[in-house]
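Training component of the fellowship. As part of building independent skills, the fellow (R.M.) carried out the full modelling exercise for a liganded target. The chosen ligand was S-adenosylmethionine. The inputs are recorded below so that the supervisory panel can assess the work.
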Amino acid sequence: MTDRLSREISYLRLSVTDRCNLRCTYCMPAEGGPGLARKDILSYEELLRLAYLLAGVGVRRVRLTGGEPLLRKDLDRLVAGLKAVPGIEWVGLTTNGVLLKEQLPALLCAGLDGVNLSLDTLDREQYRQITRRDSLAEALEGLEAARSYSMLRVKLNCVPTALNRDQWVSLAALAQGTPVLDVRFIELMPIGLGIGIPRCEEAEILEALEGAFGPARSCPREPGTGPARYVTFAGFAGRVGFISAVSHPFCHGCNRIRLTARGGLKPCLQYGLETDLAALLRGGASDEELSAQIGRIIWEKPAGHHFQCASALGDESRAMNQIGG
Ligand code: SAM
Ligand code: SF4
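Fellow's submitted model of the complex:
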């Protein structure tokens, strides 16, 4: 369905947990926070019922996220269930990669279509500083495992900050070789613990990359591939992308909604606006009642974020792992 601004909503970011095995400084507090009680997290059966209804209003692509989605037991069961929902054409996963190597075979058997792996550095000490954990080796094993499946679309996502400035070129260089890998720089958003951390913008990153690889060439936009703008360099098999929600907003073409791990449907990352589908579902609501609420919140999707307006930062006060990144 379309929202009141005629944006077609077809993409769901589905958070399956708020827990994580890392503690990235811009995402989660060092102590981790209390975490949702198990009973408050939607079961796979509940998620699949909502997925049927969301597909009924036009959701076609689903990305599993969190927290760290691979902490959720038997995630392949959910992937298989989602792939069986009429209308859902594509299911992807965003992960820190630490547990990916062992789980990937089952996820692929279940029909997983794509993996985005978040990695901000290739330097072990820096990784420890950013994630507060010593898991770089496991994350790299996860990346290699994903790259070994030629049919799987793999993207590497890096949040550029002053801390990992010396890694931008090495990370982008991963897009040089084969198998093909796209490396994307995701601008830090002032949300949750990201508030107050200075962000690095794409012009600065591009300058560093052009210094190393020569002039960048813009890649044509592929329809339905999201908000990233891609460039490539001479001799590169893959591309380098920029997703710059703050400095280059893409709200006018936004097609996404988010479901939090506790069952809140959010039409925009930055706003507190959310409908509590879990309460309705567990209170015995019919499919018609749930679909009506889904339709209402989609219709009310805000026109755009207001990250640049400092006075309005408090709309969504939760950390990224609690919302579902
Ligand atoms: N744990 C998984 C992972 O790290 O890929 C999935 C959840 S994580 C919240 C999803 C993505 O959000 C990660 O790529 C992470 O770097 C990004 N992220 C977290 N906080 C952010 C912020 N304030 N601004 C921009 N990206 C952020
Ligand atoms: Fe965990 Fe992902 Fe947040 Fe890092 S960004 S703390 S890996 S949820």
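The panel noted the following from the submitted structure. Residues 20, 22-24, 27-28, 66-68, 96, 118, 320-321, 325 surround iron/sulfur cluster (ligand 2) (CB under 6 Å). The mean pLDDT is 93.
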